[in-house]
Amino acid sequence: MSKRAIKIAAIPGDGIGPEVIDAGMEVLMAIAGRDGGFDIKSERFDWSSQRYLDKGDFMPEDGLATLRGFDAILFGSAGDPRVPDHITLWGLRLKICQTLDQYANVRPSRLLPGIEGPLKGVTSKELDWVIVRENSEGEYAGVGGRVHQGLPEEVGMDVAVFTRSGVERIQRFAFELARSRPRKLLTLVTKSNAQRHGMVFWDAVFEQIKGDYPDVTTDKMLVDAMTTRMVLKPESIDTVVATNLHADVLSDLAAALSGSLGIAPTGNLRPERDAPSMFEPIHGSAFDIMGKGIANPLGTFWSGAMLLEHEGEAAAAARLMRAIERVTGEGKYLPRDLGGKASTREVTDAVLEAIQQDNA
Ligand code: NAD
Ligand code: MN
Question: Ligand 1: which residues within 6 Å by Cβ?
Answer without folding.
Answer: 16, 20, 77-79, 85, 93, 261-262, 280, 283-286, 288-289, 295-296, 299, 335, 337
